[in-house]
Amino acid sequence: MLTGRMMDFPLTLTHFLERARSYYAAQEIVSRKPDKSLHRYTYADFHKRVCQLANALTRLGVKPGDRVASLSWNHHQHLEVYFGVPAMGAVMHTLNLRLHPNDLGYIARHAEDTVIVVDRSLLPLVEKFEKAAGSLKHVIVIPDDGPVPEGRLDYEQLLAAESPTFEFPRLDENSAAMLCYTSGTTGNPKGVLFSHRSIVLHTLVCCLPEVLGLKESDTVLAVVPMFHAAAWGLPFDALLTGAKQVLPGPHLDPQSLLELMQNEKVTVAGGVPTIWLGILAQLDREPGKWDLGRMRHMVIGGSAAPPALIDGFRKRHGQNVLHAWGMTEMNPVGTLARLKGDLHTASPETQLDAYASQGYSVPFVETRHVSDTGEILPWDGKAMGELEVRGPMVAASYYGDEGKDRFTKDGWFKTGDVVTIDPAGYLHITDRSKDVIKSGGEWISSVALENALMAHPSVLEAAVFAGRHPKWDERPLAAVVFKPGQEATKAELTAHLEKQFAKWWLPDDILFVTQIPRTSTGKFLKMKLREDYGDHLMKASVAS
Ligand code: AMP
Questions:
Q1: Which of 29, 439, 441, 464 has its CA 20 to 30 A from that of 485?
Q2: How many whole angstroms separate alpha carbon 50 and alpha carbon 81?
Q3: What is the pTM of this model?
Q4: Does ligand 1 lie within 6 Å of residue 429's CB atom?
């Protein structure tokens, strides 16, 4: 082999920090506090405080490879921890503030966190699991909504005592930078350990014009929590490109977000479908109230974005929606629904199909789908199978080596998502493998039925799940939440579905509920629906 003669320069996050300080010193980071006031500072201020934090953590004994946890909303101090911890060679571990204390205790112990940085407003939660966490030596409290209690380390005081310069070490690009646990609905959560290299590659890929296409003139709003799959990498993308960052703190209601988008002139925002469903409903209620003229695109992912949501934003509010699919195990963005080739000139309906699909792979994510019997399926838009992925931003194993069965012998990761792939490479997720509905041995797509129900004008949200059935084994059941002040009968909703689906696909019953149970990261928790209503049809058949 003739070896290339290029420098062996590591791909690490330290470069992001240096670049922000050298080229984008005056760029702004704006974050919202619990009292709704805004905190503003520049990348230059941010850089100084990241150095102060690295000095403070070093003084507390944090060494390369140590896990430093965060339990915080999206705000500037959380961003400082995001960069300061990996740049000093330690590992940033984001804890999900929506989890039960027992789960947090399990995760913190599993990760062997030695330090936790927590918002004062969330300290009561830490108090419930800090003993169970086992190895915690320091709890550092960010005074977000009031003074830090006696006897606890105060984040601001720690930083104030330190020098604003820090000699960041030259790190190996394969060293661990960040630890994120999956939001798994079954079994224990599993840890995914991102390397500096994978985060850097992911950032470069996401900033490409055909992906998120971020640039210095953008203003990025990460609504997606920084504790969920690294906020899809948005903080990294923004820092590398020198874009302005806006962080919403704990205020995630549509009104607060719309205010922030308008006043801070946001151009790119990312969040899960629930967030955007709320925003769309608000815009529909008060059209013309908010000036979102600077928005370039709204990024939607984390669970399937209903076509009616994408269409509603496009047609009624002139907003460009980008549907993305990914997983924590993938750093996390895997595919994105942008038009390509003939689709640029296709009919609006065909374009909507593409926008509502999960899109095609970003560079360096390779995909295939495989049948139950292990056969690799064709990209014909029909064959359904489990999606497998590989690439330099895909986990090679879980932290602690659990879940080995998710990795194939020939080097692919099994996603657990059931998909079709069309000839142009666009993915269509039809289900999570564990949520598949098999009726009389035939398979019914819950996602397709949900999307159709959510296209009904009265329906805010709908989840379709398997109900046990004495004859067919499983039959689809739907849980529906209406928009405020709206209603429809079961017969009306069934008639609406009949236009699109074969009779045997139609749900056997439609349950009207006030909310659909969700996972800690906002996905429909179908396991809970199955637990609560799974026997509904058995009972009905006994009664009839
Ligand atoms: P997480 O690791 O919490 O981000 O969860 C990853 C899982 O969320 C994927 O395996 C999918 O099941 C689901 N998911 C993420 N994005 C989408 C999407 N755009 N459409 C459908 N499912 C999605």
A1: 464
A2: 7
A3: 0.91
A4: yes
Low-confidence ranges of the chain (pLDDT < 70): 183-186, 540-544
Q: Give the Å distances, CA to CA, from 489 to 75, 143, 459, 461, 495.
A: 44, 50, 11, 15, 10
In angstroms, the Cα distances linking 363 to 203, 313, 360, 423, 476 are 11, 27, 9, 18, 37
Three-state SS letters, 347-371: CHHHHHHHHHCCEEECCCCEEEEEC
* Rounded distance between C-alpha atoms, residue 267 and residue 243, angstroms: 10
Protein residue closest via CA to atom 17 of ligand 1: 303
Which one, of 313, 336, 294, lies nearest residue 209 by Cα?
336
Atom of ligand 1 at shortest distance to CA of 182? 2
Alpha-carbon gap, residue 18 to 344, rounded angstroms: 39
Tokens encoding 223: 């609504």
Q: Tell me phi and psi for residue 409, to 5 degrees.
A: -65, -30
Residue 485 CA to ligand 1 center (angstroms) comes to 31
Give nearest CA residue, ligand 1 atom 13. Answer: 303
Q: What is the CA 414 to chain-centroid distance, rounded?
A: 19
Asked about 379 being catalytic, the answer comes back as no
d(CA 515, CA 442): 29
Instruction: Tell the residue number behind the tokens 């996390």, with chain if given.
Output: 332
Catalytic residue flag (residue 73): no
The torsion angles phi and psi of 148, rounded to 5 degrees, stand at -75, 130
Q: How far is the CA of 272 from the centre of ligand 1 (A)?
A: 10
The whole-angstrom separation of Cα 220 and Cα 243 is 7
| pLDDT tens by residue, 335-374 | 999 999 999 999 999 999 999 999 999 999 999 999 989 9
Q: Evaluate: CB of 304 within 6 angstroms of ligand 1.
A: yes
**Tokens coding 39:** 């905190």
Catalytic: 474?
Answer: no
Domains of the chain: 14-26+37-211 (3.40.50.12780), 364-432 (2.30.38.10), 437-543 (3.30.300.30)
